[in-house]
Amino acid sequence: FIERRMLMAHQVETMAYAGELPWHGLGQKVEDNLTPQEMIAAAGLDWSVSRRQVFVPQEPGHGHTEGTLTTQEYGMLVRDSDNYILGPCGKNYVPIQNEEVFSFFDKFVKEGDMTMGTAGSLNHGRQVWGLANIRQGFKLPGGDEVQGHLLISHPHQWGKSLTIMFTPIRVVCNNTLTMALGQKGDRFRMPHVKAFDADVKQSAELALGLASKQLESFEEQSKFLASKQYTDDKFDQFLAQLFQPALLPNVDRTQFNRTCETVHELVYTQPGHKMSEGSWWSAVNAVTYFADHKAGRSRDASLSSAWFGPRAATKRRALELATEYAEAA
Questions:
Q1: For residue 254, what are the contacts with CB-CB under 8 A and spacing of at least 6?
Q2: CA within 13 Å, CB half, 109
Q3: Contact predicate 253/308, CB 8 Å
Q4: How far is the C-alpha of 57 from the C-alpha of 69, rounded, in Å?
Q5: Of 46, 28, 231, 51, nearest to 125 (Cα)?
Q6: Of 126, 174, 119, whose CA–CA distance to 151 is shortest?
Q7: What is the phi/psi pair of residue 240, to 5°?
Q8: Which residues contact 163 (CB under 8 A, 6 or more apart)?
Q9: What is the DSSP pairing of strand 67-79 with strand 84-90?
Q10: Calpha distance 314→177 (Å, rounded)
Q11: Helical axes 310-328 vs 198-227, angle rounded to 10°
Q12: Which residues on neighbouring strands pair with residue 129, listed in sequence order?
């Protein structure tokens, strides 16, 4: 018997965090020295999933007798703790448990290369994540500090892959960027068609080395952006390209929509706005601060979009576009 609960309005189901209250203001505070297993329990992720058979009522007629039909082609992915249906899945789908995924962090936490930062569940368990600080970072002029993190995105959804992403966080305001590791071919992705075994874990561990390289590249890019000043006209074009392309090529700021106006104001008011003031680095952070802290009707929906959804893509596009403008300056 499978019981399907009514959906709640909130995206964040459960969450735990170490350190200061996250920018979205959600979650249960925990000690900053938790093991991955302790973080799973604190974040309410100590549950399993299973693939269940589908039974379809069959009415008599057309050569059939009354009863039920079963299909091996499709099943339902179900959370075992409450029998909540996460969605359909194919016959080759291999459920991967939260505990298996978080075991990726074990070695690094034990050796002091990482500390667990936050973990949680979105959309009733369909999206599980874990964020760990890789204990590496850099500082820009004015003491603007950036710390490197690894974000594991673990979807309990057919057709979606487990991914590991490099995630730099600007300390002064907790602005985030989620980026593929290295080039496209280097990104770690694992579809649910094989178990998360030792070979997969070994491949995933390469992500730490890729993250270190990505951090070096991002540091170089950030310092370059911080060294290049924008003009008012170019900044207006930058905002229009991101949020209101209909205004191009001759941008009239008096025609800005609410989003463009808000981001334009944030470049002068965001936390740390005096650091690298007037630079393309400041322009990028106005966009990321808007996406993380201001956009959306609720904080939990913002978390989902800013890390995994459309706003995550907007932030990456802002970084690319600002770099293009800085190179042309």
A1: none
A2: 20
A3: no
A4: 6
A5: 46
A6: 119
A7: -65, -40
A8: 152, 153, 187, 188, 189, 190
A9: antiparallel
A10: 10
A11: 40
A12: 120, 153
Full-model pTM: 0.86
Residue carrying structure tokens 């205004």: 247
Nearest to 286 by CA among 307, 315, 257: 315
- Sequence-separated contacts (24+) of 199-207 with Cβ below 8 Å: 201/103, 201/104, 204/104, 204/164, 205/104, 205/107, 207/150, 207/164, 207/181
Residues 300-314: pLDDT tens digits?
Answer: 567 788 888 899 999
Write the single-letter amino acid at 311: R
> Measured in Å, how far apart are the chain's first and last C-alpha atoms?
64
Span 284-304, average pLDDT: 84
CA distance 151 to 129: 7
Q: How far apart are CA 266 and CA 255, in angstroms?
A: 18
State the amino acid at position 136 in one-letter form.
Q
Lowest mean pLDDT, pick from 38-47, 196-205, 215-224, 319-328: 196-205
